[in-house]
């Protein structure tokens, strides 16, 4: 078989035609949530730096996080953090060799999704409850 | 390398409709198939042609439909097939969005028009026939045979029932490549990552109580790419037409690496 022939061969379609499945989507969601944590921690650092810089700088940051966009970012950050953590636990379970049956992989995926949403709401409800602010 | 789009020469174009049924055709009698076609002799880009299969004259499996099309409509349609009962692994292809064996898949299990492509992210020789050279070379690389140092016994290499049972779920693999070519890690790094099928085969020999080179075999897999490109995406396990679990075999390999360290 000549290299010339091989070079001319087309590559068969892959991502374009493969049916999206929950387990596959959970894998990419784990990566995206992990990468977005970097942004979240940058925000956290900004907040910490502002605290050390005094009341004026802090007021500026507090105003940003109090705004609608700021709160939306914090909500997403909370969700990404919890989703990524639960995903990590899922991987930990797999590392022991458990949870690989065709039923288990679906159950674990759904547990991660539901768990991350429920826990995110819980964190915010508790947060608002303790702070007592709107 | 991660490349989400297809190279220029691989972009799929719209092909032709071969035998659209008459308007007054009996409803439900004709089943629509959209097949990936590539002809190396013309050098044109691949295309998707549409065929209609007369279900009153055709068997229930997807492979039956392909053979029907080849016999009745278009003899140039090219695909691999042999045993037609799920033991040879020749007719593996992407049917209705997932990799499977055309011979063991019921056409009824898919809704609407059935789209068929060659195994994903592989060089295409013609139509539904991919070039498996690299896949087989990787299988060869894990040396899938019994390796021993002890003198060969007079009769056979003995194995207890318990040890033999450890090979269940591994020895049944027919090397159809449905799992490996379903794996995004294998798509992006197939030149260095061994892929689920070959790793399951590697585990089959590492798990074998009669094999005496377990350590050496594990050493060969201790590599950021060969084994550890598996990120438990699980497309392999979902695709396997034999109901095996390559993801579990890979997890078992990773665990053996830790346990021996």
3D architecture notes:
- Chain A has 134 residues and is mainly alpha-helical.
- Chain A has one domain: 3 helical TM bundles of succinate and fumarate reductases (Up-down Bundle), CATH 1.20.1300.
- Chain A has helices spanning 3-8, 22-53, 55-66, 68-95, 102-131.
- The N and C termini of chain A lie far apart (72 Å).
- Chain B has 2 domains: 8-130, Roll (Ubiquitin-like (UB roll)), CATH 3.10.20.30; 133-260, Orthogonal Bundle (Fumarate Reductase Iron-sulfur Protein, Chain B, domain 2), CATH 1.10.1060.
- In chain B, β4 and β5 form a beta hairpin.
- Chain B is elongated.
- At the A-B interface, α1, α2 and α4 of A face α7 and α8 of B.
TL;DR?
Chain A is mainly α.
Protein topology:
The complex is a heterodimer of chains A (134) and B (261).
Chain A: H1 3-8, H2 22-53, H3 55-66, H4 68-95, H5 102-131
Chain B: E1 13-17, E2 30-37, E3 47-54, H1 62-72, E4 92-95, E5 98-101, E6 114-117, E7 124-126, E8 129-130, H2 133-141, H3 161-165, H4 184-189, H5 196-206, H6 214-221, H7 235-239, H8 246-260
Parallel strand pairs in B: 1-3, 2-6
Antiparallel strand pairs in B: 2-3, 4-5, 4-6, 7-8
């Amino acid at each position: 078989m000549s290299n010339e022939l091989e070079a001319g061969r087309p590559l068969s379609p892959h991502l374009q035609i493969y049916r999206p499945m929950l387990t596959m989507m959970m894998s990419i969601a784990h990566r995206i949530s992990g990468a977005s944590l970097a942004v979240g921690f940058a925000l956290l650092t900004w907040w910490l730096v502002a605290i050390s810089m005094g009341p004026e700088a802090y007021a500026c940051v507090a105003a940003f996080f109090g705004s609608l966009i700021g709160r939306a970012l914090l909500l997403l950050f909370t969700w990404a953090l919890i989703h990524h953590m639960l995903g990590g636990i899922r991987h930990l379970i797999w590392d022991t060799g458990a949870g690989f049956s065709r039923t288990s992989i679906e159950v674990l995926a759904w547990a991660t999704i539901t768990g991350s949403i429920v826990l995110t709401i819980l964190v915010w409800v508790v947060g608002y409850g303790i702070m007592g602010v709107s | 390398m991660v490349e989400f789009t297809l190279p220029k020469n691989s972009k799929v174009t719209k092909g032709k409709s071969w035998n659209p049924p008459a308007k007054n055709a009996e409803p439900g009698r004709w089943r629509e198939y959209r097949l990936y076609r590539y002809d190396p002799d013309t050098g044109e880009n691949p295309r998707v042609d549409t065929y209609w299969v007369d279900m009153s004259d055709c068997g229930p499996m997807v492979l039956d439909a392909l053979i029907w099309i080849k016999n009745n409509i278009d003899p140039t349609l090219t695909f691999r097939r042999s045993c037609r009962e799920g033991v040879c692994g020749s007719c593996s292809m992407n049917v209705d969005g997932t990799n499977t064996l055309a011979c063991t898949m019921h056409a009824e299990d898919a809704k609407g028009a059935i789209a068929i492509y060659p195994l994903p992210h592989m060089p295409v020789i013609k139509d539904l026939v991919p070039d498996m050279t690299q896949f087989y070379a990787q299988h060869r690389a894990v040396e899938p045979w019994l390796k021993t140092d002890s003198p060969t016994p007079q009769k056979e290499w003995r194995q207890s029932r318990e040890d033999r049972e450890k090979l269940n779920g591994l020895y049944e693999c027919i090397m159809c490549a449905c799992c490996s070519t379903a794996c995004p890690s294998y798509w992006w790094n197939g030149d260095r990552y061994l892929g689920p099928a070959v790793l399951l085969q590697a585990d089959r020999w590492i798990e074998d109580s009669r094999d005496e080179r377990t350590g050496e075999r594990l050493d060969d897999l201790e590599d950021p790419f060969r084994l550890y490109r598996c990120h438990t995406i699980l497309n392999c396990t979902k695709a396997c037409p034999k109901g095996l679990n390559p993801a579990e075999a890979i997890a078992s390999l990773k665990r053996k690496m830790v346990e021996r360290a």
